[in-house]
Amino acid sequence: MINVEQYDRPDTLKEALELLAKEGAVALAGGTSMSLAKNPSWNSIVDLSDIEEIQTIEEDDEFITIGAMVTMTEIFRHPGNMPCSISAAARAVSSTPIRNMTTVGGSLARSVYWNDLPVALLSLGASVGLASAHERRRISIDELYTSHPSKVLKSGEIITDVKVELGKYKTNFIKLARTHVDYALLNVCASLEVKGNVIANARISVGGAVNMARLVIPAGELLSGQQYSDDLFIKAGETAAESIEYRSDFRVNREYQKAVTAKLVTRSLRDAWNNCECNETDGE
Ligand SMILES: Cc1cc2nc3c(=O)[nH]c(=O)nc-3n(C[C@H](O)[C@H](O)[C@H](O)COP(=O)(O)OP(=O)(O)OC[C@H]3O[C@@H](n4cnc5c(N)ncnc54)[C@H](O)[C@@H]3O)c2cc1C
Fold first, then answer.
1. Does residue 80 share a domain with residue 147?
2. Which atom of ligand 1 is nearest to the CA of 117?
3. 198 lies in which domain range?
4. How far apart are CA 220 and CA 137, in angstroms?
5. Ligand 1 centroid to 96 CA: how many Å?
6. Residue 29 and residue 109 in one domain
7. Distance CA 195, CA 216 (A)
8. Cβ(246)–Cβ(209) under 8 Å?
């Protein structure tokens, strides 16, 4: 933050949005990546830490709404109906100090290959609340992730919350990393909307092996409208492995990325179908 001359810590969202409307202003959330940032065009920091209205987790019969300033630790400690893949993704983030600081809004907006939470939110078809001094709007996470979120957010606009429909999907999240605190080699989340023995809709997302969390649409389409069968889950894993544009990763080669994607997509689908616990894995 080399040219920053102003620091504000407003109490209300309205005040924060007015400050963010000024040229060169930038939002500060958990600070886990902002503390290393060197963008010379930023001249003022708007710290979102004191804004209570974006720090809550609220649920009703249909939806859970998670404020942008909720941390990863607060997500997996939430005593209510947090979808298990969201809890697992939050728990999978690095170490306790990082989980205590990293926020929902920061994870979504930063959006680098290792961000765990966006993978779960994409699979669950979350919607994202956005606000600027001029407008409030809600978009699907698919729209936020059509390209990097920084290109989708308008000037002065911030993420205020994410909203997820409760009970719609059987869901499962798996993170593969070399150690518990390492960045993901691969994240997978499978969410299945099941009607009787039929998969009405399937949303499969990946992270870690790609530049930014993304849906694997061909694998989801293969399953949607089909009767359950394990062979179909194996085929969906193979389809996912073939349809991903992998990032190069000094830790693993392309053959490994493909093989492990096929295997973990299939496993995540099986575990979602069988309502299994979400787990980290060592790839075995
Ligand atoms: C050592 C280390 C290991 C990590 N490991 C992991 C990991 O394994 N998995 C993982 O998912 N993450 C991990 N992280 C965290 C991740 O890299 C990012 O730093 C984090 O997601 C940023 O969240 P934050 O709340 O700290 O945001 P900040 O650092 O405060 O902000 C990040 C960016 O998001 C913008 N922003 C923040 N909030 C909003 C908002 N509400 N609306 C719009 N824009 C906003 C900021 O302006 C900034 O550009 C790790 C971080 C560190 C330091």
1. yes
2. 11
3. 170-277
4. 28
5. 14
6. no
7. 22
8. yes
Domain containing residue 182: CATH number? 3.30.390.50
Domain match, 158 and 138 both: yes
Q: What is the per-residue pLDDT for 140?
A: 98
Pocket-testing residue among 38, 47, 94, ligand 1, by greatest number of atoms within 8 A of Cβ: 94
Q: Which residues line ligand 1 (CB under 6 A)?
A: 26-34, 68, 93-94, 98, 101-103, 105-107, 109-110, 114-117, 158-159, 183
Of all protein residues, the one whose alpha carbon is nearest to atom 18 of ligand 1 is 33
Q: Which of 127, 145, 165 is the last residue of a domain?
A: 165
- Residue 19 confidence (pLDDT) above 60: yes
- Amino acid at the residue 107: S
Q: What is the pTM of this model?
A: 0.96
Neighbour count for residue 101 (Cβ, 10 Å): 18
Q: How many domains does the chain have?
A: 3
Is residue 275 a contact partner of residue 170, using CB atoms and an 8 Å limit?
A: yes
65 versus 80: which is more confidently predicted? 65
Q: Tell me, what amino acid is at 25?
A: A
The reply to whether 63 falls in a domain is yes
Residues 200-248 pLDDT 10s: 999 999 999 999 999 999 999 999 999 999 999 999 999 999 999 999 9
Q: Taking 90 as the threshold, does the pLDDT of residue 281 lie above it? A: no
Tokens 């290109």 identify what position?
151
What are the phi and psi torsion angles at 195 (to 5°)? -125, 110
**CA 143 / ligand 1 centre spacing (Å):** 20
* Spatial contact of 99 and 91, defined as CB atoms under 8 Å apart: yes
Q: Which of 120, 140, 165 is the last residue of a domain?
A: 165
